[in-house]
Amino acid sequence: MDSPLHHFELHPILHLTLLGLDISINKAVVAMWAGLALVILFFMVAGRRQAALVPGKLQSVAEIG
């Protein structure tokens, strides 16, 4: 039987080292990149609209977050 902690181990997808530091890419890194891309995309869409005197729903959500 496997240990319950086995599910939390991070296995590298791509092994990389830079100046002796392990900067391997794993599933957690890919998930963070995907989340960052969604946040950047959200703010790009919200910022593309013309600024109004009274902010719209999307701008209000972006400013609150």
Short description:
The chain has two helices and two strands. With 65 residues, the chain is mainly alpha-helical.
Main attributes of the structure:
65 residues, mainly alpha, two-stranded antiparallel ribbon, 2 strands, 46% helix, elongated
Would you write up a description of this structure?
With 65 residues, the chain is mostly helical. It has one domain. It is built from 2 helices and 2 strands, in the order E-E-H-H. A hairpin with a 2-residue loop joins strand 1 and strand 2. The N and C termini lie far apart (44 Å). The mean pLDDT is 86.
Number of helices: 2
What form results from the Cα inertia axes?
elongated
Largest sheet: 2 strands, antiparallel
What's the helical proportion of residues? 40-55%
Side by side, the strands of the main sheet go: 1-2
Q: Could you say how many structural domains there are in total?
A: 1
Distance between the termini: 44 Å
Rounded mean pLDDT score: 86
Instruction: Name the helix and strand elements from N-terminus to C-terminus, one letter apiece.
Output: EEHH
Overall SS class: mainly alpha
Gyration radius, to the nearest Å?
Answer: 19 Å
Strand content: 5-15%
Pick out the low-confidence regions.
none
Count of DSSP strands: 2
Break the fold down into its secondary structure elements and pairings.
Blueprint lengths: L16 E2 L2 E2 L4 H22 L8 H8 L1
Antiparallel strand pairs: 1-2
